[in-house]
Fold each of these.
Amino acid sequence: MENPYLPYPVRIEDIEIATEDKSLKTFTFVFLNKEDEKKFSYKAGQFAELSIPGQGEIPIGIASSPTEKGFVKFTVFKTGVVTTFLHNMKVGDIMGIRGPLGNWYPWESLENKNILIVGGGFAFTTLRSSIIYMLDPENRSGFKDIHVVYGARSPGMLLYRDELVQWEKRDDINMHITVDSTDDPDWKYHTGFVPQISEEVAPKATEDTYAIVCGPPIMIKFTQPVLEKLGYKENQIIMSLENRMKCGIGMCGRCNIGKELVCKDGPVFTLDRLNRTPKEY
Amino acid sequence: MNLVKIDKNGFKQGIDRARKEYRLFGPAKGKEGHTIRHLDTDEYPDMTYNDSVLSAKSVLFPQTEKMLYTTFDESEPDHHIMKRAQADYSPQAVVGIKPFDAKALEILHLNFDNGDYRDPYFCDALEATTLVGIAVNSPGSCDFSTSTGTGPFDESALDILLVDTGDQYYAKIITDKGQSFAETCGFEEAADEKAATDEINALKEKAENAVTSEIQYENIAEKSIVELYNAPLWDDIAFSCINCGTCTFVCPTCWCFDIQDESKGNSCTRMRNWDTCMSPLFTLHASGHNPRGEKTSRVRQRFMHKLKYFLDKYDQGIMCVGCGRCVKQCPVNIDIREVCNKLNAYEEKA
């Protein structure tokens, strides 16, 4: 059996500055061994450990979609030892990826449902993966209406801006882009916080509607009552958590919330399940 | 099952024979009391020990262990590509492990082979290991192993159980691994089954009766996690705790670990080290946020993990074998027996 601590060797293929303050960069990796790409078969919502020898490992959501072949992408916020080192690495450098890890958004039960995606700030990475996955011609007919509310502090802090603009133009996805504030007179999208915009534009819940919510704690706190008001039940609200991790495979013991391990039983939980566990996240 | 008798001189000779085929570990006296460690070629396991400061956990799950290595030297073809560190997984035996410490290794095994992933370091070491236990004739005052589903004579996690009758040992050969070890040692003189069984049972009864403290956890399963988590007990329990982490290090069932990279020049090693949920760093996010930033939440985590989360997750009792080490070595006298009994008796006020 394989050693679950052994990362697949990868090469940095591309580095893109993702936000205007340069605090986030999107890294594209290719596997040194072609067969590793097959082994790294993932679903939207999963994460991986980016593994830099001599520095350590960081658990990061996979931003590319399973429908995108030949590479994997991660958007990383510069905040600690490993992420800072990664931000200084160059195209061509060799490092490792361990995964895919954790569970995914419950695509099996989301089939033929309306999907509302609510995202804020940096937490849009696995949501990008999900959107690309759902919009794939092979998959789009498997979902009904798709709404996306996505906000950031300012226009320059929105991730994947080129893609947002493209999605905005399509008629098979309803984009509701917002910023907290802007002095750009040409800004043609919403202005206001994500919970407030959600209240204005998000569809009311039917039995066939599920919300996927990902964002900073303050956004989640104020979005929850809005979704309740719109009729979403606890099992229709799907969230992705993060906690400090090391092993990523359910053994090292630090990321638990009650008896659930965020790395292995999560990171995706329904609100219903979270309400039955201590809120240690 | 096979019952053999071993006289005490023959035991030493047997150990010498075993050395040729097994790497031997066992109780050895050090400055701070006994530990279970690798025995040099002229050392014999000290079978008379009462307590060891640490359990045999470190034989299979070392306090610090090399996992992976690589090189930064870009002239090497596989620079920056991690490989598994070499370790010796040839046959080894722990001679003189306490029955409940062996039970604790079963608990660790549940964690390190979780159905989806197998930790090769722990599991390979476990597979290479033969556990030769020594029955505890005189349990210490902090021993409460009989109420945790094991006990001073529990043979369920052992390959061989030795029982010291004063002038000789009886050896119960429990598994094939045990049989191979006994053959290697030349422990083959059949005991009179009836007489030996009677004598062992008498010693067992005496030992079990000597375990005077106990815990109750039969009501914990039916209470909800959130109910116990929110019980107004935790501030009192945690009040005197200084978060030193001693309880987690001496615990034979605590499995939490940290992973750290070490590099020197061009060589890089990924290590794992025992970690402790008593440390705020254990859960500190890079953002500065800490879901268990308060002392009380960390103390609660330790006891909830052992007494509730583990119980609910595996349905195999609690994550405690009643060895009493944490009770004995806690500098502020926090006692898991009291905590467990409090949780067991807790009723949420309507």
Note: Chain A has a mean pLDDT of 95.
Amino acid sequence: MSNIEPISSPIPYTRGNVEPLLHEVVHALDRLLEDDEATVIDLASLPFGPGELDQLEERLGIGELTAELNALGQSIIRETAYPGVWWLEHRNTEGDIVGRYIEITRAPEILMSQDADIGAGRAQLGDNLERAGPGNENGADNEPRPN
Amino acid sequence: MNLLEFARGPALQVAVYIFIIGSLWRLLGILWLQKKRDFSERRNGRKIRGALKVIWNRAFTAPVFREATKHARFMGYTLHIGLFVTVFLFIPHIVFFKGLIGIDWPGLPNNVIFFVGVITVGVGVAILIRRMTHPVLRLISNFDDYFSWLVTLLPVITGLIMPIRFGVRWETLLAIHILSVALLLIWIPFSKLSHAFLLIVSRGTTGAILERRGART
Amino acid sequence: MKDIPTLGDILQARGVSRRGFLKYCSATASLLALPPAMVPRLANALEQTRRPSVIWLSFQECTGCTESLTRSSSPTLEGLIFDTISLDYHHTLQAAAGEAAEAARHAAMEENNGNYLVLVDGSIPLGNPGFSTIAGMSNYDMLMETVEGAAAVVAIGSCAAFGGIPGANPNPTGAVSVRDLIKDKPVINVPGCPPIPMVITAVLAQYLTFGQLPELDRHGRPMAFFGQTIHDRCYRRPFYDQGKFAETFDDEGARKGWCLFKLGCKGPITYNACATMKWNDGTSFPIEAGHPCLGCSEPGFWDKGGFYNAVSTGDIGSGKALAGAAAAGVVLGATAAAMSRARRKKTMKEG
């Protein structure tokens, strides 16, 4: 199923969700600086009016760093114009949105290489090197694990 | 059938039937009473004019009594106006009436209605306290007075609780509200609340008689 | 019971990276309306979950619930869940037919006795078993036979949960809900016409993850998704409070997005997640699209007095009944007056 793009509301509409949310982000940034405590806000849990989510994204803006993750579909992990405030958008293999979050943290957990993956990758690299040892003319099979 | 369906369905219907039966019974039972034939010659004879004049004039206290009745007048007017506003100018009520009689009219914002409702209940409590503490009123008040007070204020109170909720489900509160209205409808014809439709009749009759005799109205 | 792989095993075998699994867990936590802080616990629980057997029974239904699920907002999630669950029987989705299909159902029931999940959509006719049969077996018999060894039953859609449209007045087939028939097994109702697909998935995910029933309301619906009314979460609520209502479907109020109460919106008495989770990936929901809520997740919503009659309209009886009451009142009044006159005459005579 392809993406459904909603028609944007002709009348600029606000249900009053954007401002309080931004205040929440400010408080979360305080906590991050003082206590090194990260916060995750699940945007799916809030009843946005039409166009409000776009307003929020606009207000937060785009920062220096954008990462594209390809695992079970594409995800965008983007630092907003406010350092420490990250906008995460997860899509599935069909391109539909499965999650939108705002993370107030130094780096979202999902950006980091995970122990299980590191372990599996290390094992595979070891295997590849063994196979590419003396006498093997075809070369190593360097394909990483598929997603 | 759950409570709400019962309240909006059978309960309300039965209440309306009893209201109609009771009101007509009382009204016609009074109107068709044998009137004493007045053998005197009539002075003016315009009965309708007399009726209307007295209905209008008696809505306002004669200057001589104004000071003595100021409390009752203030509380009475506030209560009745408050009841009118909360019943007839609240939009979900207007939708209800439109379903019945097909006529629509503009209403007031919900928070205004809520405010008026609170005032109404406040005045209602003041009225009750007055009735219970005033030396004369206390003596002459009977079951009809107190029960009518309760039955009139219950719909307003239950209506005010609906937006506040206190953790109770909205449908339950709506059902209780409708049941309180049903109780009111059943009680009106058989109590002093029947003044709602009998007042016009009694004042009109007085006015017609007085006018016929040429008395000042 | 044969060795059943855990979800963790399956994901690893499919080459899903840990990042992918975290993404999946975040989305699942979001679906289950769990706070993001619970994701690590969820990841842990999901990794240990064993792949359960699921039997889907379709009775008197329109297949809308299956359509909703397979067109769902997060197919990858569905794909994962349905890959990780073993969907051993489903009329629309299975390849087998006839005896082979029924044999698959019986095999699944035997192998997983006591542990499989039964999903039901559609109501069950009790009027005449011939109204709806599968492989010559009546719906009632198939339900009772299949549920006997089940761990739990999930009634998907308003038909299975409450009787739905077959059960609406005059209910010609004698349709009943799953809960009307199954009393000795846990039954979760996921009503809606259809239910929000994310909700169906989330309920399944929750049961599979935590192995226990979510908190249910008095209609057996999970409180996480059916705990609040549409009215309480509706973005048009400020207009209701300000008394701004649309009077018709294309008037100025409608264009400005005012409250649809007067047009028959059943939001105040409907419990569902439409106003928050919305439909089609959170795109919109009926009220946002300009149509009043039908109340489709409530019992008997087809017979609640009309989709376009406001919630506050009442029924005070037919014109005939009212005329009858008026006539009775007139008679009583006349009688009272007559009695009074007779008494008066008597008094006058005596006096």
Note: The CA atoms of residues 70 and 147 of chain A lie 8 Å apart.
